[in-house]
Design a protein that fits this description.
177 residues; alpha+beta; Double Stranded RNA Binding Domain; 4-stranded mixed beta sheet; 4 strands; 28% strand
Amino acid sequence: MWLFRTFSILVALSAVIVTGCTVEPLNSSRSNSQVSSSTLSTSTRSILQKTEVDAVTTRHAQQVRNQLLFAMNGGTLQPNGRYRVKLNVEQSISRIAIEANSRAPTSSQVIMKTNYALIDKIQGKTVAQGARQVVTPFNNSPQSFATQRAEREAVNRAAAQMAQQLRLAIAQNLANL
């Protein structure tokens, strides 16, 4: 009897907690936000597809930009978007393990930091901004070419991870407008 009563109380309490949850897909249409306040109701996904990403000047920043464009719109920018993203990407290499005898690094990591700003092109002002960081490890080899390739692959992995983080952050910012 005691076990049944405890079980029923837990079930009732769980039902009360679950009914208080409001879960909504990130890319859903929201009629009460500025994103969908135009004449046609649009979703965050369609806003992302029309969002531009400003040009950058370094290789690692271009990797992030390309990956971000592909993540947001499949690589095909739709015209007449309202927003644009400005990126500032910094990259550094940190040697984290050194061989005792030769003092040669055996393990390193790429640290990629990105500051972004989401800009409303119509109003000309920044509507959201943020920063993200990705750390990607790689192994050093006694062969210099192998180490260079490992470093480049780590930069590519970091850029892909960074683009996914930025896409989610920008989508959240757009959904909250």
